[in-house]
Write a structure and sequence with these properties.
Blueprint lengths: L10 H10 L4 H14 L6 E3 L2 H17 L9 E5 L26 H8 L3 E6 L41 H8 L5 E6 L5 H7 L2 E4 L19 E6 L2 H11 L30 E5 L9 H16 L3 E5 L7 H16 L18 H12 L2 H14 L4 H22 L5 E5 L15 H6 L5 H6 L3 E8 L5 E7 L5 H14 L11
Parallel strand pairs: 2-3, 7-8, 7-9
Antiparallel strand pairs: 1-3, 4-6, 5-6, 5-10, 9-11, 10-11
Helix pairs in contact: 2-3, 5-6, 7-15, 9-11, 9-12
């Protein structure tokens, strides 16, 4: 029986092939670099450096030859361009940081390198991770003369989701076996759903934020994106762990082997199904696919438990007060003084700030800075920001009440499948509403993941969202893995890839 092409093989299979020496790290890296070059029209990569990648691969081959291989030795991985890197530009897809190179690697990048991973390059994202479609890109992709949105491999006229759309598209198209992403309000889960792959946002603080270009500090969390739950578990095992010296929000929880419970039975598992996730606004095709996935879980021995998350509809206004407020503070540092873009024309310091930020930030970033500055201003801080923080606490409490009745919570990732590029560009609110089902878990700091669960309109993927209680990533990955053992949605690939 012939082996599937390298870009169709799992992380587990590729790492085993490297250890068995049936393929070298250099050959594997070359294969994926060639695929990235051949599919530049997707706009997934913002930066590549073949010399750097192949040098890392040759070093991995040397360790494999001496038997000193680490867990992910030689595995090619690509990083969302929200993580700073020494060997590649780190732009956050913004003109403000065009060409910027960091003097250090983000902890996520370093941890994966320490586990043996080889960096393929940097992946496109919405500017400063602000967007739901990966259309807010202000720097050109590799091979492109001008900035462009990332395209969904399942249908190049559609968005891949955002803000980690480059990561999702690269994995779905087989340009990388795995990628890093970040999730502030759903930016791992939603693009994973739209592109038919698996992605997990761990508990807030599980993974260090050091070296992640900040959007909303109390919400941003890194996570892996790959074909399957097993692949995500292997990556998460390398990425997670405390980082007290460099990230004060890092949890003092030891690193884990997240593959340890993948095969555990889910007989008797109580799956909470929130009625708020199945009301008006969810498309019929998405509802059908999610219901079929829940029926599959029942065949595997789980049972549905109806639950309530009564403040779900408040998640959008709460998020779009808190996140812009934090963005307003975080993006204040981009003023043209120490690094990044600086306007060429100005008469004094105030005009330099004004011109630099006007030229450097895109429209969506400006919109969120202005909203955030407004809600933090005198006279509005109590009325908006403090009230949003109180409701955020209530949303978190709603989840804890629900977890007294169930083990995991399941529902759709998004109300619809991926929309057409440009379809919602003129209506920011329509983009914001696409996050209605992912925002509550983000506000509560809970782990959540998306896994492929079928197809909807236009043959586009539909993602099932699983939400767990704090630090229950291993349970979530187990529940996802057992579903993927019984179905083949995660193995299906877009035509031509």
């Amino acid at each position: 029986m012939s082996q599937p092409p390298l870009h169709h093989q799992s992380v587990r299979a590729l790492t085993q092939a490297l250890r068995d020496k049936t393929i070298s790290a250099t050959e594997l890296a070359s294969h994926f670099l060639a695929r990235a070059r051949d599919h530049q029209s997707l706009g997934a990569f913002l930066a590549m450096d073949e010399d750097v990648t192949l040098a890392q691969a040759r070093a991995a081959d040397a360790r494999l030859a001496t038997g000193s291989a680490r867990p992910l030795e030689g595995l090619p991985v690509a990083h969302k361009d929200i993580f700073v890197t020494r060997d590649f530009p780190a732009t956050a897809a913004s003109r403000m940081l065009a060409g910027y190179r960091s003097p250090f690697d983000a902890t996520v990048v370093q941890k994966l390198a320490d586990a043996g991973a080889v960096t393929l390059g940097k992946l496109s994202c919405d500017e400063f991770a602000m967007g739901s479609g990966n259309e807010n890109v202000a720097v050109p992709a590799v091979g492109a003369a001008a900035p462009q949105p990332v395209r969904n491999p399942w249908d190049s006229t559609r968005v891949p989701g955002g803000s980690s759309g480059g990561s999702a598209a690269a994995v779905a198209a087989g340009l990388a076996p795995a990628a890093t992403g970040t999730d502030t309000g759903g930016s791992i889960r939603q693009p994973a759903a739209f592109c038919g792959i698996t992605g997990i946002k761990p508990t807030y603080g599980r993974i260090s934020r050091h070296g992640m270009i900040a959007f909303a500090s109390s919400l941003d969390q890194a996570g892996p994106m790959a074909r399957s739950a097993e692949d995500c578990a292997l990556l998460l095992s390398a990425m997670a762990g405390p980082d007290p010296d460099r990230d004060s929000t890092s949890l003092d929880v030891p690193a884990e082997d997240f593959t340890r419970d993948l095969e555990a039975s889910i007989e008797g598992l109580r799956i909470g199904v929130p009625e708020e996730f199945f009301g008006e606004g969810i498309d019929a095709d998405v509802r059908t696919a999610i219901d079929a996935a829940l029926q599959e879980y029942e065949r595997l021995g789980a049972r549905r438990v109806p639950i309530r998350l009564p403040r779900t509809e408040l998640a959008i206004p709460v998020y779009y007060i808190i996140a812009p407020a934090e963005a307003s503070a975080n993006l204040e540092r981009f003023d043209g003084v120490k690094f990044g873009h600086r306007a060429k024309q100005y008469a004094d310091l105030a005009e330099m700030y004004l011109n630099t930020r006007t030229e450097g930030f895109g429209e969506e970033v400006k919109r969120r800075i202005m909203v955030g500055t407004y809600v933090l201003s005198h006279g509005y801080y109590d009325a908006y920001y403090l009230k949003a923080l109180k409701i955020r606490r209530i949303i978190a409490d709603d989840f804890q009440k629900a977890f007294k009745e169930c083990d995991v919570i399941a529902g759709p990732v998004a109300p619809s499948v991926a929309w057409k590029i440009g379809e919602k560009s003129a209506d920011p609110l329509a983009n914001y509403l696409a996050d209605i089902f992912t925002l509550p878990a983000s506000l509560a700091g809970l782990p959540g993941m998306s896994l492929p669960a079928g197809f909807g309109a236009g043959g586009m993927p539909v993602g099932l969202q699983l939400i767990g209680n704090y630090l229950q990533e291993a349970r979530l990955l187990n529940v996802a893995h057992r579903f993927q053992q019984a179905t083949d949605f995660h193995l299906q690939r877009p035509a031509g890839f």
